[in-house]
Write a structure and sequence with these properties.
five-stranded antiparallel sheet; 20 strands; 12 helices; alpha+beta; single chain
Length: 544
């Protein structure tokens, strides 16, 4: 299956976002990125990993003018840190789904020893934090100028559509699944986060069709489930219940998982009524199988499974190696849904998760079940992994492009109208700076005497001929770039650089920890064109 994705990339230039069987402009997020990474981290190694990684980088770093290929919004979102609600519908879904995919790319970059992209994409995987609004307590749509799509007074968490795909802010309450701890900290801590999860189920079941104008079937199904605003009928909520495990409340996961297994599946299986919701590419069945076994891959990009509450007294997984992994819960039943204690291969076990390696090694997880909530698995040392360390109080925040509100100068002003030096710093790969000659420079001075240490920077190719792309350059820095006697220090040098695609954002590490007042991209050679073009330059800096 994974090689099939890579073959599609080789043949068509992109991995299909939704294969039907070709390229279909449907759904959000280039989730082949996290699928490749998650599979590799779980030991699936016999596929074209380098072709897969190339496709991941293209998804994340190249603008596509075809809605069925690549990520929508890349023209600006690469630089802004989120997809703007006034520029693209379903913008919040795109932002949050691709934060998951960026985490997958960071994980893959780590295993391939690509330290620059690992650092860059781990930073970008925090982009979900740019859409969290403390004033309303939800993720919500943000406009290009930084304002929220609605005022606080007009915000309606039950309103479907607009910035969300097939849902509303309620359904995306816990959608930052690669960084549950970071998400917890955004909400103000574990207690506040648990309260938010509880409120999803206790909220009114009423929905507002919002931008859909008509009532979509997903809304009807969510209403029929009668679980507040929890919409098991659709994918965005499928990790939500397991997020209790990350907030020291595994008993809440156990209770709610068993409840959904009962009301969303038992009522339909064998009755001819089917599932409550779409069986999109098998995901409703997959959720059921994992739920029935008692664990689930709730946080992709981590080779482990959050524990729930198994449906059976005994389940056996027959592994390709010939080994077996057994989940045993002999006193399980409708009245006994809470884990009181556990043993893994005969040894006492308190973690609220299983490692993938535990399962593929074979063995047995023995669970003692009971009728009352317990403190099993609720200690900090028992928490599953998260991008933000599980005991850290840090609120996830992106390191950002520091080239804002400063002074731009260049060796050459625009040759053609609309291609001035400001276009290299306008956070839009659809515009470009065009300079005369093959060896120009462009520089940026930070405002108000600010200094930044820039350790990552990006250069984006323009839409025109590859001959105009820079080939050799230096990133130089100075504390005095406004006078004619400035002293420049080279913080990074690159030679023989190519841009494989048009409007391709390439990432470079400057390994610079010294703060400077201004930076200059000094290009010494392009690819043979009569002019040089750059669509965008970013100076990703630490705090001033």
């Amino acid at each position: 299956m994974l090689d099939g994705f890579v073959t599609a990339y080789r043949d068509g230039g992109w991995v299909p976002r939704w294969s039907g069987p070709g390229y279909v402009d449907s759904m959000v997020g280039t989730h082949s990125d996290i699928v490749f990474a998650d599979a590799y981290l779980r030991g699936v190694l016999d596929f074209d990993i380098h072709g897969a990684y190339e496709s991941m980088l293209k998804n994340a770093l190249v603008y596509s003018d075809d809605g069925a290929r690549g990520r929508k919004g890349n023209q600006r979102s690469i630089f802004a840190g989120y997809v703007a609600a006034d520029l693209l519908t379903e913008s919040a879904s795109w932002t949050m789904e691709d934060a998951i995919n960026d985490f997958g790319i960071a994980q893959m970059a780590n295993v391939l020893d690509d330290k620059t992209h690992a650092e860059y994409f781990l930073n970008r995987s925090r982009r979900f934090s740019n859409l969290f609004s403390p004033s309303v307590g939800f993720f919500r749509g943000r406009n290009a100028n930084g304002t929220w799509r609605t005022s606080d007074a007009d915000f309606n968490a039950a309103q479907w559509g607009y910035e969300f795909a097939e849902g509303d802010p309620w359904q995306y309450s816990a959608a930052a699944t690669t960084d549950p701890r970071g998400m917890i900290n955004l909400y103000g801590g574990k207690s506040a986060f648990v309260n938010r999860l509880d409120s999803v189920f206790s909220a009114s079941t009423d929905f507002d069709p919002g931008s859909y104008g008509v009532v979509p079937h997903e809304m009807v199904e969510a209403y029929a489930l009668n679980q507040g605003q929890y919409a098991h009928c659709n994918e965005p909520d499928h990790s939500l219940i397991y997020m209790y495990d990350y907030a020291n409340a595994p008993s809440e996961t156990q209770w709610r998982i068993r409840n959904i297994l009962d009301i969303a599946y038992d009522s339909g299986i064998g009755t001819g009524r089917g599932y409550i919701g779409d069986e999109d590419t098998g995901q409703m069945s997959a959720w059921y199988v994992f739920g029935a076994l008692g664990f689930y891959p709730a946080s992709p990009g981590h080779a482990e499974y959050a524990l729930g509450s198994p449906l059976f007294t005994r389940a056996v997984i027959h592994l390709d190696s010939g080994k077996q992994f057994v989940v045993s819960a002999p006193n399980n039943g409708h009245g006994n849904v809470f884990i009181q204690g556990a043993r893994l291969n005969g040894t006492s076990y308190s973690r609220a998760y299983l490692r993938h390696s535990d399962i593929v090694a074979g063995g047995e997880l023995e669970l003692t079940m009971g009728p009352a909530r317990s403190t099993w698995g609720a200690q900090d040392e028992d928490l599953p992994q998260s991008a933000t360390p599980v005991t850290s109080p840090e609120i996830p925040a992106m390191r950002v492009d520091r080239a804002v509100d400063g002074f731009i100068s260049a060796s050459s002003e625009n040759v053609a109208a609309g291609m001035g030096m400001a276009q290299a710093f306008d956070d839009d790969s659809g515009t470009q700076w065009q300079a005369q000659g093959t060896a120009p420079f462009i520089q940026y001075a930070f405002p108000a005497n600010l200094k930044y240490s820039v350790s990552l920077y990006t250069v984006t190719s323009a839409a025109d001929s590859p001959d105009f792309d820079p080939r050799d350059w230096e990133l130089q820095a100075s504390d005095d770039c406004t006078s004619g006697t400035a002293t420049w220090v080279t913080v990074d040098r690159r030679v023989e650089q190519d841009f494989a695609w048009r409007r391709f954002t390439r990432v470079f590490s400057a390994d610079n920890h010294q703060p400077y007042a201004c930076y200059r991209l000094a290009i010494s050679r392009n690819h043979g064109g009569e002019v040089t073009e750059v669509a965008e330059v970013e100076l990703i800096g630490d705090r001033p």
